[in-house]
Amino acid sequence: EDEAFNQLKDLFEGSLAGPPENVLALASSIRRHVVRRTGENPLPGEDPQAWDELQDTLALSERFGLVLTFPPFDKALYLKAVAHHLGRPLTQEEEREALRFALQKGFSGRVARQFAQSLL
Questions:
Q1: Contact by Cβ (8 Å): 11, 19
Q2: What is the biggest distance separating any 2 CA atoms in the chain, rounded to whole angstroms?
Q3: Would you say the pTM of this structure is higher than 0.90?
Q4: How many CB atoms are located within 10 Å of the residue 103 CB?
Q5: d(Cα 74, Cα 90) in Å, to the nearest integer?
Q6: Can you say how many angstroms the Cα of residue 90 is from the centroid of all Cα atoms in its chain?
Q7: Core-most of 30, 35, 45, 87, by most CB within 10 Å?
Q8: 89-102, pLDDT tens digit by residue?
Q9: What is the pLDDT of residues 53-90, one digit of tens each?
């Protein structure tokens, strides 16, 4: 690998030296524009961005011993999340409305928050 790439990588990932005081490092969330491509993809037929996402997930686990899972919401958990965002129990009418709202968008924490905000 070339020296410039290694210096940039050290700047983003950290090093013992630290960045110079007159340098501001900005990182893009769109990795495909920052990470150099070699043309090789270890997973044939896979999108390079999907490979990057897999590597990011593995890096979290390797660095910090973390495994993040987001189990799917079911109806009961969705209604519990709506009530949590409202800060109070739901009425029967609110439960029916919340379920109608979720039919269009699915059961998730984000949808629960959106529905709760629509009531506030």
A1: yes
A2: 64
A3: no
A4: 9
A5: 17
A6: 29
A7: 35
A8: 999 999 999 999 99
A9: 777 767 766 777 666 677 788 999 999 999 999 999 99
